[in-house]
Amino acid sequence: MLRRSRHRAAGRRAPLRSSPSRSTLSVTDLLSEAVAGILQRPARSVLTSLGTVLGVGAFIAVLGLTSTAAAQIDTRFNRLTATEVTVEDTGGPDADRVPLAFPEDADRRIVGVNGVEAGGVYWKVRLSPGDVVRSSPVGAVNGAVSQTPVIAASSGVLSAAAPHFVQGRSYDAFHDDHNQPVAVVGASTAARLGISTLRTRPALFIGDRAFTVVGIFDDTQRMPDLLLSIVIPRTTAQQMWGPPDGERARMLISTRLGAAPQVANEAALALRPDHPEYLRPIPPPDPKALRTAVGNDLGQLFLLLSVVCLVIGAVGIANTTLVAVMERISEIGLRRAMGARARHITWQFLTESAALGLLGGVAGTSLGTFAVVGVSLHNAWTPVLDPVTLAVAPALGLATGLVAGLYPSWRASRIQPVEALRR
To answer: How far apart are CA 423 and CA 421, in angstroms?
Structure first.
């Protein structure tokens, strides 16, 4: 009986000599511990994820607003630049002998081309050094403006440029045909010359030649250079100063939408059927290429800003997670003493930081989407958002949280149980 009892006792003690089983951490326990750690300090968790919210929100807003702005630029290009054709006077092989290749009736000829709304010839008048622009008949004082450019332009140029007149009106074909000494000026140039009203029929002087100001404009749809210039009839300038000298003439043509390429192909032959090689039409650039270029430039600039925001958010998560590790040293030591392994501690804090990054990514995606839609509604635009970007943004926040939690998680796993419990 004793031997049998001893044998049974020995059999019962045998399992005590076997090695203890290793501790495990299931995915469910890992997620519950991470949620508990986040909810334990909700205010800190919100502030920690705020950097990721701003970074991902800026990422979505930047890409969305860039795409939306590029679409609006494309639309405006189609309305204005896509309806503009320029014809340069090159003179061809006879450039030295033919200073002005455009015929006198160039405006009437170009309007006869199908798809053309208006067009006219212009060039910059080359003044002598002593010819200053002033508002008084004698002397160089009282509103003298010596560097104001003078543009010789037919009435068709003003029709194509479509200036907005605040006073008076544009000169017309009558002034062109009869070499009238009239001028239209931009509002800023008129103010520098001291011309504030047209009721007194003011005049300006280019050298010793007087020109009656018939219109003052403050904006143009095309040729913004006119705003800082004095514009006089082409025939008047040619009578007083001769044909273009140095800088050759050009023609500005406004067309109907979609007709610009055809007009560019037919303009030279319509203007000079005898020597079309004297003229070189320049069609508008491809709107898709312009949109792509503008979109790329804006995207690179603002994407850099969103990356900076994400880096700031990652630094915030890393800093806060590291502080949380230092505050929870006793908790980490107790877990290690109860059998938690180093990698369990690493996964716990890494999951917490990843969860904060994911929450920040989702909130930032919503915030950025609302920003794009709000700005588009305020400006009456059509919002443009890429679904792929919206799907990737939360994952970007998750990745930010993971990267930010690597070092704090590693620090937490290096804490020894004995040292932690002593604190």
So the answer is: 5
Euclidean distance between CA atoms 146 and 132, whole angstroms: 5
Tokens matching residue 205: 């002087």
The residues, any chain, with a CB within 8 Å of residue 31's CB and separated by 6 or more, are 351
Residue type, 404: A
Tens-digit pLDDT profile for residues 234-287: 999 999 999 998 889 999 999 998 888 899 999 999 999 999 999 999 988 665
Measured from the Cβ of residue 89, the count of other Cβ atoms closer than 10 Å reads 24
229 φψ region: left (φ > 0), alpha (ψ -120 to 50), beta (else): beta
* Residue at token pair 């020894």: 416
Q: How far apart are CA 249 and CA 238, in angstroms?
A: 12
Return the closest-CA partner of residue 226 out of 134, 148, 283.
148
Residue 296, amino acid:
N
- Backbone angles phi and psi of 122, in degrees to 5: -150, 160
Q: What is the pLDDT of residues 382-421, one digit of tens each?
A: 888 888 888 888 888 888 878 877 777 777 777 776 665 5
Residue 373 corresponds to which tokens in the numbers above?
A: 């839609």
